[in-house]
Amino acid sequence: MASRTSFDPAQAQHELAHADATPARTAAGAPAHAAGASPALAQIQAVRSSGWAAVEEIAAIARTARSEWPGIATWLQDHRGNGFVQEVLAELAGTPSKTAKLPIVLLHGFNTGPGDGMSFADAVKDGMRGDGALVFEVTAPPFQTPAERAKAIAPQLEQILRKTGASKLNLIAHSLGGLDARFLISSLGWADRIASLSTLGTPHHGTPTADLVAGAMPAAAKPALDSVGRWVGKHVNQNPMAENADVLGTVGSMTSGEAKRFNAANPDRPGVYYQSWAGLSTFDGGLDDAELAQVGPIHDRPADPRRADRLHPALYLGALTSGGLNDGAVPVDSARWGNYRGAVMGDHFDLIGQDEEGANPRTGFDPAAFYRQMARDLGRRGF
């Protein structure tokens, strides 16, 4: 039996980075370690869970088997991908934590509000709270630019800091809420009060849909559009900030041209941890290997990766105009920012738990479990 010592993630990362990219193989063509797997590797090969659950389970095994890491890493790269190996290494480098140490604040996207049932699902919030996390949700105008929305959010964050006595906050933002958060951090001077920003389906690099819609809306239509926006915000979104409406500005903030300007004006700030996820969904619920290869690591990958999520019908038009791989509203490539954690098998609504109760029987994606793991991961990173 191989000797077992404590695991050094830094050394393991060094070995992984300098290892031969082509694993040694037997005459039969199988990886050399497969025929006589080491004890720890045999346990890892038997792991049937996916996503973060698999990361945790495999890291727990690897932690007791430092000397077996080269074989473990090679097998994981072959069978789960390099992105998964990096997640295991990050888990090994962190400290045990059941949930986030700092308060979590949820930021919603546009055309919604905390009271309309179309923002973060109760199951998502309750799951994190059940683990002991302090979870809050703020309100932003449903139809406004990131700059105006961030200004409306700031006083609410100040109140949360006073209420909890915390020195910093963890922000989790969906869709346009991610741009609100970035403006808050970079342009409103909040970098010293924000520990982390996690974005899901945020159009960091704009969307083709916004380009199309913005080009079709003349400036002369602004009064009428804002009137409609106020009515929708008040009666549909039930958002108390509905009167502050700028529909053209909202759409314009998500165009590819404005995204370039916004990104240049709002660079990431030192000391803030940025991470992101994309959503991935299709009309027929199928993806081929070439499409999957463009996405990167996928959490909660189904047994058959081609069993992708099926789009909600309300997102069909957005998917058609987005082009390429997307969640029905935001292209996968546009959602990448900071530490890109991969694509989730779900559409733009699934990312906040609005289209699922429990795990999706087709893909296995469970929004409540996903957010619980996100909060735990933030705690492991010291946040």
How do the helices and strands line up, and which of them pair or pack?
Blueprint (H helix, E strand, L loop, with lengths): L8 H9 L21 H7 L5 H12 L6 H12 L1 H12 L10 E4 L14 H9 L4 E3 L8 H19 L4 E6 L2 H11 L6 E7 L7 H9 L5 H15 L10 H6 L3 H10 L7 E7 L1 E2 L6 H5 L4 E2 L9 E2 L5 H7 L16 E6 L22 H14 L3
Textual characterization of the structure:
- There is one protein chain.
- With 383 residues, this protein is α/β, with parallel strands linked by helices.
- The protein is 41% helix and 10% strand.
- The strands form two sheets. It has a seven-stranded parallel beta sheet, with helices on both faces.
- α8 links the parallel β3 and β4.
- The N terminus is likely disordered.
Q: Beta-strand percentage?
A: 5-15%
DSSP strand count? 9
The share of residues in helices is 40-55%
Write down the secondary-structure element order: HHHHHEHEHEHEHHHHEEHEEHEH
CA-atom Rg in angstroms: 22 Å
Largest sheet: 7 strands, parallel
Structural class: alpha/beta
Average pLDDT metric: 85
Measured between the Cα atoms of the first and last residue, the distance is 38 Å
Total number of helical segments?
A: 15
* Model regions low in confidence, pLDDT < 50 over at least 5 residues: 1-6, 16-35
Coarse shape: globular
Strands across the major sheet, in which order?
2-1-3-4-5-9-7
